[in-house]
Amino acid sequence: MNFAKSEYFVNRELSWVDFDDRVLEEARDKTNPLLERVRFLGITQSNLDEFFMVRVASLRKMQAVAYATPDVAGLTPTEQLAALSAKIHPLVEKQYSTWTRSLLPQLEKVGISLLTYDRLSKKQLSFCSQYFHQVLYPVLTPLAVDASRPFPFIGNNTLNLALRLLKNDAHGDEKKARRFAMVQVPNVFPRVVTLPGDNQFILLEDVIKPFIGELFTGFKVKEVQTFRVIRDMDFDVAEEDASDLMKEIVHQLAMREHTKVMRLELAAETSKTLRKRLIKALAVHEADVYDIKGPIDLTVLSKLVKAVKNHPELLYKPFKAYTPPVLRQADLFAAIRQRDLFLHHPYDSFDPVIQLIKQAANDRNTLAIKMTLYRVSSDSPIIQYLSAAAQNGKQVTVLVELKARFDEKNNVHWATQLEKKGCHVIYGLVGLKTHCKLLLIVRREGDGIRRYMHMATGNYNDVTARLYTDMGLFTADPKMGVDASNIFNMLSGFSEPEHFAELNIAPLTLRPFLNARFDDEIANAKAGKKALIRMKMNSLSDKKMIEKIYAAAAAGVKVDLIIRGICCLKVGLPGISENITVHSIVGRFLEHSRIYYFYAGGEEKLYLSSADLMNRNLSRRVELLFPILQPDIKAQIVHIYQLMWQDNLKTRVLQADGSYQKVDRRGLTPLDVQASLLKEAVAAQRRTVEPKTAPPTHFVPMQKPWSPLDED
């Protein structure tokens, strides 16, 4: 049977927009705390911004070079751009109707106000006048546009004011007296300005506008409007000579700000004259111009949430992440030596991972630490302990992926700092991003050399570990240890392993390994045996893997998929995908763990991975898939998956028409899986008493919105 027909696939980009719409549903969900709904709305904006910076930018580049090859769904780049425009414009309208008709009025009811200038009290008007004249005025820079002063460069994601001016002493010919100018809203000040009064706020641009004429003495302000541009922020680095990779990354970062405009947001009341001038000057496609009926750049809402005081009831209740007692002991090596240990973040604390690295850095028996870093926090304790390990004479090898999108600058900084401290820093393989999450510690012990490992589905980032659901495994399994050593030898040297005993790595063995597991289930189904595949991932877009899933389902294998974001597979295709069910969970935390389960005739083979089933993960990245061999941990993860599958509050189910529908809860006990797992973690915390010397594991409320593009 031919499973490769374009009508069997969904366009990747359109599927992503559907995901952002599911996030928007959380902003509209009245069961969520009000300020968290506001934050979800801000998340939809940051998602959309990154989508234009990366995905729309890629399509525009294809269009510019007349690339006309269709995608798996049969759409050319030009057709995709047209379809995206038709889908995103209504999404933006839905964003702003959510804000103006729902969230803003509800905030007002509880005494939280984001005011416009015409609604200010006398005291607040006086405050704004003083704030403008004493603080803002010295910083603001008027930029005239005329024959001698060309249109200024507008930076990516900066907020700007465009003005139409008229000279005061104009006589007769008004046309000659017309002027055009710009003022950037300075980003050195908070955009959310706190006013006198409890939880009273105004946006910075609304403080500037009433006084902006003072920057243009001798002219009358005819119009002033806010606008913002999003530019192409993606880049491809030529890697023929990896020795110059860092230098090339730094160069590309400097150049990236001057790329083409992918999106222009304008205040909806902007005049035709001003609108036309901006579109022409910025060379933006009409389809990528968005008329905004509200505050431009809704990511400001996360700052508004942080500014609100004394309303904890409008936020998610903070909790304390759980640290299993076995991981609270002083000697973590002894704990891992006895048995494999599993962590499920953010319900379980990320601190044991940090503590293991800290212990290794100061442990006289530790000989070497090897680690991959894709994204770390801006103040990472892991960097601190790796540096300390090198200073203490350990052999420290760190692979820092410089090409981690939007973290390039941060990673260049950390790579430089690690090298200064004596760590051996490598930048991965030519043409591949190293996305696997692997920590290897080599110790000299009484019975010889022993390897300790931590492998995970998510990044070594102590901040996102509080926001993303991820899974990690501590193990001292000898076979996995040898495999881990071979992986690092491959990354740092010329080693080309032909065989791995337990681990699988992309782009070498991961795809054929998964194909073999699919074939096993297909064979069992054809033999009349029970055949079941359960997988959880962020995105499913790889054409060959989708064809393999179709083949399994057509053979009678039951396929259950939990896919948070992009899904290019269709359900309900007669004779092809009727055995496939797809769920998407969008909730408080970003679902990020990757689980691959195969019934295997009752043996139940279970794997965790850093990889989604996307072509980039399977073919252009170094990814890791590792088995769960210990029965109790396997049972725990199976339980977690089953709980996720039973979620009926935050789950949307993919329909045959491509839409996602909430679960019909009639007759069902309401179940929010994330809330349930939080409850389990809190209960476990209460059952055990941490020693006073235990490291802090307090859950920190969301400091920044989670972002699905940011994590990969």
UniProtKB/TrEMBL annotation:
Keyword annotations from UniProtKB, A to Z: ATP-binding, Kinase, Magnesium, Metal-binding, Nucleotide-binding, Phosphoprotein, Transferase
Residues given in the record as ATP binding sites: N47, Y468, R564, H592
Record: residues binding Mg(2+): R375, R405
Polyphosphate kinase N-terminal domain sequence ranges: 9-114
Transmembrane segments: none
Polyphosphate kinase middle domain ranges (all copies): 124-304
One Gene Ontology term of the molecular function aspect: polyphosphate kinase activity
The protein's name in its UniProt record: Polyphosphate kinase
Catalytic activity entry: [phosphate](n) + ATP = [phosphate](n+1) + ADP
Function text: Catalyzes the reversible transfer of the terminal phosphate of ATP to form a long-chain polyphosphate (polyP).
Organism: Loigolactobacillus binensis
Sequence similarity: Belongs to the polyphosphate kinase 1 (PPK1) family.
Region (Disordered): 687-712
Domain Polyphosphate kinase C-terminal per the UniProt entry, residue ranges: 332-496, 503-674
First-tier enzyme category under EC: transferase
PTM comment text: An intermediate of this reaction is the autophosphorylated ppk in which a phosphate is covalently linked to a histidine residue through a N-P bond.
EC number: 2.7.4.1
The protein's required cofactors: Mg(2+)
PANTHER family with a match to the protein in the record: POLYPHOSPHATE KINASE
Pfam families referenced in this protein's UniProt entry, alphabetically: PP_kinase (PF02503), PP_kinase_C (PF13090), PP_kinase_C_1 (PF17941), PP_kinase_N (PF13089)
NCBIfam families assigned to the protein according to its UniProt record, in alphabetical order: poly_P_kin (TIGR03705), PRK05443.1-1 (NF003917), PRK05443.1-2 (NF003918), PRK05443.2-1 (NF003920), PRK05443.2-2 (NF003921)
